[in-house]
């Protein structure tokens, strides 16, 4: 199931400069969130071994919707309003469905280590989307970083070779869908609480889980060996969302965002420890290149944003 988008600064303001103890708490929460989301990936993969993939998607969406509805009620956030029909919300939900399809199918059929490496390309996809969709200026350095990151992804995928796994394209579909979802979130009405957007995103994927079951011709079944990991995935996904939300509110994005990359370490570690995977040198090399390119892209965007802030203050 897709991950909720990180709350934007407009909806979850934080101090411009966090105090040292707040920064340390934010970093700890960000690392905890990545560990929880890596556990979610593991649980979904375990569940898909015993249940139809479409059913995993359907039950994840239904369980996540129920939890987010309870949270929204506790926060007195609206469950429904006319903004659900806003064009950008509808487009966001479309990308949510695309990302959910790719995420669940990728976790079911792709080794966890390869899946984790591909998912780290999200910042690069966001940069491409910002240039093509939002018409943001992207300089030559960031385009070079994007090209380098795509090269790293090709090392992981290895198209045209004996090591190419076609199902790995599901993971690519997932990362593109979720990155575009996060991008379109910037264009959604600012007054919609993050929890409401997340609830709507989960809700729209419920019927598509049934569609996936129909397309694959798999009957509905309640295998106990698949239900427990699925319940675990729902719980840790929600906890991970709260942890990253709290981290973003405690400290600026520039402090928190780099620690998102720890998820690769956790997910690869779980792939090795739980599923007995043994990533080869090309996978490690490609993952390293993707991380370096994404890290540079983030650093460069931070530098540009800092210069703009200084220029505004000077003006």
Largest sheet: number of strands, sense, barrel closure: none
- The DSSP helix count reads 12
The average pLDDT score comes to: 85
**In one word, what is the shape?**
globular
Which spans of ≥5 residues are poorly predicted at pLDDT below 50?
Answer: 8-17
Straight-line distance between termini: 46 Å
Q: Write down the Rg.
A: 19 Å
Give a short summary of the structure.
With 315 residues, the protein is mostly helical.
Key features?
0% strand; single chain; 315 residues; mainly alpha
List the helices and strands and how they pair.
Elements lengths: L19 H29 L4 H22 L12 H23 L2 H8 L2 H11 L7 H18 L10 H18 L8 H23 L7 H27 L2 H4 L5 H14 L5 H34 L1
Helix pairs in contact: 1-3, 1-9, 1-11, 2-3, 2-8, 2-9, 3-7, 3-8, 4-7, 4-11, 4-12, 5-6, 5-7, 5-12, 6-12
Q: What does this entry look like structurally?
A:
73% of the residues lie in helices and 0% in strands. The protein is built from 12 helices and no strands. Mean pLDDT is 85; it is low at 8-17. The longest helix is centred in the C-terminal third of the chain and has 34 residues, at 281-314. With 315 residues, the chain is mostly helical.
